[in-house]
Amino acid sequence: MSVSFCKSARAFNLINRSMPTGVLNAITDVAGLSVGHVTLRDGNRQTGVTAILPHQGNLFRQKVPAAAHVINGFGKSAGLMQVNELGCLETPIVLTNTLAVGTAFNALVRHAVAGNPDIGRGTGTVNPLVFECNDGFLNDIQAMCIREGDIDAAIANANNSTGVFEQGAVGVGTGMSCFGFKGGIGSASRVIELDGNSYQFGTLVLSNFGRPGDFILPDGRRVVPPKVRDVPEKGSVIIIMATDIPLDHRQLDRVAKRGGAGLARMGAYWGNGSGDIALAMTTGWTISHDEDRDIVPVMMLNENRIDRLFRAAAETTVEAVLNSMTFAPATTGFRGNWRPGLADWLHGSDT
C-alpha cells in the first residue's frame, strides 16, 4: 500500500466545528513539554518507546500535579497507585510495549538516581511512571528487544526536541492497531481563554484498541477495514493530557475521565480485555520535593469554568486517535500479519 496518503485527520476534513487549536495542534503546545521516540522496525520487530517530559527541569525535585483514571483495568502500567495517592508525577512518562514495562521502570529509576543521588538514601525512593499496550500482533513481543538504552535515548530525544514530533507508526506506536487499522501515536491541542489569557490543553494517545467494524468517523460513516477478520475487543489505549491551566488533583481526575467520552464517540466500548487508561497533568504549578513550609499555596481553576476543559479533553482525544491512524501507513509485521492504513481507505473512499 502507498504511504503517500498519510497525513493529518484535518487534511481529510474529518475535524470541523472544534475549539481553536494551538500552533502545533499537539500536546507540545503546552510550553516546556516535549516528546521523544525510539523506533525499532525490522521484520518481526515492530515496536519502540515514547517518552514525555512535562518540563525540562528536575522532575523529582519539581513534581507535576497529576491524576490517573482507569477506564478499564486490563493493563500492566507502573506507578499509577502513587500518582493517585500523592497527586503528582516525578519522572518522565514512558510508553512502551507490555513486556518492556520492567525494563522501562529500571531505566527511569537509574535516570532519576543519576540526577538525584539522595534517592533511597537521604530521601524517599522514586515512582517511575510507565504505560503499555500490547503490540504482539505486528511485533514479536516475546523477543523482548527493548533495552534500557532505548528508554534513555527516547528521553534524550525528548530533551532535544523542538516541540514538533512524529505521529503514527513511530516510537511505541510502531506495532499498534486500532479498529482493525494501523494505530499508533497521535496528538491534538486546544486553546482555552481564561481571565483574558490564552492557555493550552493538549493530548497524546497511544491507540491500540477497538473492534473492527465498530469505528465511527466524526461525519457518521462506519468504517470496516478491508481483509481484517472480526475479533473481540481486547486492545488498549493510553491517553496523556496536559495543560498549563492550574488545576488540583481532584480537578485533574475529573478531566482525565472525559477521555472516555472521546473514545465512545468513535465506537469504543472498552471491552473486557482492553486496558484503557487516561492521565491528566498540569504545568500550571509544581510541587517542590524540598519544600520546608508547613502550609503551601495551591492554584486551581474556578470549577464553574471546567466544562471548557471537559470539552477539550473529549475533542483532543478524538482528534489524537484519528491522527494516530491517518499518519500511520499500512504495515506488515510479525508472521506476515498486516494492518491497512486508514489514510489509504479514506483516499480510496474519496475517489
Automatic annotation (TrEMBL):
One of its GO terms (molecular function) is aminopeptidase activity. CDD domains: DmpA. InterPro entries: ArgJ-like_dom_sf, Peptidase_S58_DmpA. Signal peptide: none annotated. Belongs to the peptidase S58 family. This is D-aminopeptidase. It comes from Thalassospira xianhensis MCCC 1A02616. The lineage of its organism: Bacteria, Pseudomonadati, Pseudomonadota, Alphaproteobacteria, Rhodospirillales.
